[in-house]
User: Fold this.
Amino acid sequence: MYGLVNKAIEDYVCSNFDADTWERIKEKAQVDVDVFVCMEAYPDEVTYSLVGAASELLGTPASEILSSFGEHWVGFTRREGYAELLAATGRTLPEFLSNLDGLHARVGLTYGFANTPLFRVKPTGPGELVLDYVSTRPGLGPMVMGLLQGLGLMFHTSVTVEWVTHRADGAACDQFLVKYVAPV
Ligand code: 1DX
Assistant:
């Protein structure tokens, strides 16, 4: 994945814990990188190892780390120069989700994306939608749960998410039932 993702993990650890914890996580993960380059592609293994090591060191399930990290990602990318990109993606939670593939296409045009996830939105009623998440990368469903919370913060929208269909159980993709209440 892009170095930006690993940088976001670093930022998540350093802002919620400290720099020393981050160094210990890198050591445990056997990741010998001083500074991640945002636009450089790193093996996915690096990201998974960092999450695994963080989970062990912090004594927190990897799924919880991924979910907190997903929430962190939205604010992190806004602060790191992608605020306009995010703003252009939508003005509401459902609009943003509907345009996520477009966001990835845009980033991909500029930097080349090897493994773009797909997000499909099916409105199911007022304030309710089903989100299909199709990814070549296994195990990142909990991160999507957190991403949705991060979008809730960005749009001042209260969000509840139910993970209704799990790819790990043999389904074609992960599916989330998202209920949201936007401010009037
Ligand atoms: F709900 O399943 C809200 O490397 C969401 O594969 C979901 O393949 C926000 F550095 C610039 C750059 C670069 C900008 F210049 C990425 F290159 C991307 C910024 C997305 C903001 C996907 C990251 C693929 C890396 C799914 C989880 C991973 C999508 C990660 C979250 C807004 C992003 O992101 C999977 C890769 C950006 C950039 C956003 C993603 C790769 C998302 C969201 N994805 C790189």
In short: The first strand starts at residue 118 and ends at 125.
